[in-house]
């Protein structure tokens, strides 16, 4: 029974499998037919779309080709018109060149004719020149026969006469210049002297041993003297100066070797006269106030001098002594200005020698500070200045330079030698130290006289305090080479005939002027 069941079950399974297979095959066949029909439909639609795209592409291509064809035609038309324009321009140029060629041919024919005429004229001129030379030779020969002189002898005689005439004219002009100079000697001397002072390299104040105080009236002299001379005695005792009251109208003379005391006395006397109260008590008060004011002024001057010389860090007492140099002179040379000049020269020399310009300026500024010590220290001013600088803690190098600038102490550095050189340059510079007016003017006049003694000199001027001689020459007598030789000869003449400090520069000026009148 069970076997039967299994057999029926197996049969049913076979039937079911067969039915499923048949059904599956039918479904697959149906799907294949559907797919094939779908493929046919898609292919048909693809063909239709391809035809449509093809037609559209053909149409678009035709339109692009038509546009490009039109552009090319337009470009060709434009190129053709440009070529036509250029061709026309070239034709015009060719016509112009043809006309130019014809003109040049005509000018060439004309020039050829002119050359022929010029050649004929040149031949004629040559013939005339030959005839003229022949006539000149005949004329010269006749002159030689008449004068019994050869051509060379006649030329030499003519040049000798011209040279003698020129020398005579130059002598007359030179004599006239000398006569004019002699007539205006004082005026020219004063002008030269004032010009020299103005052109001086540095200002130097000349001090004397007296100061003159002006009075508003001679009645003040009696008030200055006082009853039985008590006012003048009190004034001289308080200031340390001598008051000289003489017959000089409206003036009182203060005499003292110390310029500082003399300046204090002058200021005090002027204040007393302006105040009007002159008695011993008032005199002592005014002198004390003037002394205090002078002390302030001295320190101010010292600070200004150190600032101008670019020397910082000096002791206050050294500043005070530098200010006192304003009232010290040596051979008429103001020590204040002299110290400043030496400081500048030392700085410049140190810069050239690759040394320290600050140290050099400091040594140069302090080198004559011993002259402001009022004999507080023993020895010469160089040694006194060295001791003063050492007292206020200056460097040993600076102290040695101060003491050695007059060779009283052995120099130990190059700075001491620089100070010696700068001091000599400042002192020897023309115009630095006082000369009498007569000697000064005589030296300038001698310089000009030496220059005027040479032939060909038109004018000469001694300038720059006699440090330069400027000479104008006559251009028709002295050429450029002769000007150089003349300057050299005048310099040698000055060296041999004169004694002078420093150097004298000789400058020869030759000027040629040409003028015409426009009509």
* Number of helices, counting only DSSP H or I runs of 4 residues or more: 15
Would you list the SSEs in sequence order as H and E?
HHHEHHEEHHHEEHHHHHHEEHE
- Counted beta strands: 8
Radius of gyration: 59 Å
N- to C-terminal distance: 168 Å
- Roughly what fraction of the amino acids lie in strands? 5-15%
Please estimate the helix content.
Answer: 55-70%
What does the main sheet amount to?
3 strands, antiparallel
| Order of adjacent strands in the largest pleated sheet | 1-3-2
Average pLDDT: 78
- Low-confidence blocks of residues: 189-208, 430-438
Q: Write down the overall geometry.
A: flat
| Class by SSE composition | mainly alpha
Give a nutshell description of this structure.
The protein has 15 helices and 8 strands. The chain has helices spanning 2-147, 151-183, 185-198, 219-225, 230-239, 259-275, 280-308, 316-324, 335-352, 357-366, 381-391, 396-403, 414-428, 437-452, 480-497, and strands at residues 210-214, 242-244, 251-255, 329-330, 333-334, 457-463, 468-473, 505-510.
């Amino acid at each position: 029974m069970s076997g039967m069941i299994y057999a029926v079950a197996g049969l049913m399974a076979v039937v079911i499998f067969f039915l499923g297979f048949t059904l599956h095959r039918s479904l697959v066949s149906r799907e294949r037919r559907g797919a094939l029909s779908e493929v046919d439909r898609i292919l048909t639609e693809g063909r239709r779309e391809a035809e449509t795209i093809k037609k559209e592409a053909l149409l678009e291509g035709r339109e692009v080709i038509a546009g490009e064809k039109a552009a090319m035609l337009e470009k060709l038309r434009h190129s053709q018109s440009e070529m036509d324009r250029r061709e026309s321009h070239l034709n015009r140029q060719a016509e112009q060149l043809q006309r130019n060629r014809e003109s040049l041919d005509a000018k060439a024919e004309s020039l050829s004719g002119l050359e022929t005429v010029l050649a004929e004229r040149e031949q004629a001129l040559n013939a005339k020149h030959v005839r003229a030379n022949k006539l000149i030779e005949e004329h010269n020969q006749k002159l030689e026969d008449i004068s019994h002189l050869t051509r060379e002898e006649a030329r030499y005689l003519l040049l000798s006469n011209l040279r003698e005439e020129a020398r005579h004219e130059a002598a007359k002009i030179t004599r006239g210049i000398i006569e004019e100079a002699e007539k205006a000697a004082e005026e020219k001397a004063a002008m030269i002297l004032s010009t020299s002072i103005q052109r001086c390299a540095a200002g130097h104040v000349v001090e004397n041993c007296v100061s003159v105080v002006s009075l508003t009236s001679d009645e003040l002299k009696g008030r200055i003297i006082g009853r039985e001379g008590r006012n003048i005695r009190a004034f001289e005792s308080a200031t340390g100066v001598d008051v000289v009251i003489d017959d000089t109208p409206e003036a009182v003379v203060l005499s003292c070797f110390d310029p500082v005391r003399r300046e204090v006395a002058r200021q005090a006397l002027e204040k007393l006269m302006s105040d009007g109260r002159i008695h011993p008590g008032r005199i002592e008060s005014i002198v004390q106030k003037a002394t205090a004011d002078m002390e302030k002024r001295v320190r101010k001057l010292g600070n200004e001098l150190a600032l101008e010389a670019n020397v910082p860090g000096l002791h206050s007492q050294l500043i005070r002594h530098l200010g006192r140099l304003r009232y010290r002179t040596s051979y008429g040379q103001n020590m204040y200005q002299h110290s400043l000049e030496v400081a500048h020269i030392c700085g410049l020399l140190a810069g050239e020698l690759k040394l320290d310009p600050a140290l050099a300026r400091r040594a140069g500024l302090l080198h004559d500070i011993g002259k402001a010590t009022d004999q507080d220290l023993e020895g010469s001013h160089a040694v006194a200045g060295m001791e003063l600088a050492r007292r206020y803690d200056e460097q040993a190098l600076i102290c040695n330079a101060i003491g050695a600038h007059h060779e009283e102490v052995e120099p130990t550095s190059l700075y001491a030698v620089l100070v010696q050189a700068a001091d000599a340059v400042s002192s020897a510079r023309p115009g630095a130290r006082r000369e009498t007016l007569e000697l000064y003017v005589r030296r300038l006049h001698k310089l000009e006289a030496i220059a005027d003694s040479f032939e060909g000199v038109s004018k000469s001027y001694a300038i720059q305090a006699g440090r330069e001689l400027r000479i104008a020459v006559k251009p028709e007598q002295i050429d450029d080479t002769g000007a150089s030789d003349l300057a050299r000869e005048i310099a040698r003449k000055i060296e041999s005939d004169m004694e002078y400090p420093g150097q004298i520069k000789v400058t020869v000026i030759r000027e040629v002027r040409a003028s015409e009148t426009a009509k």
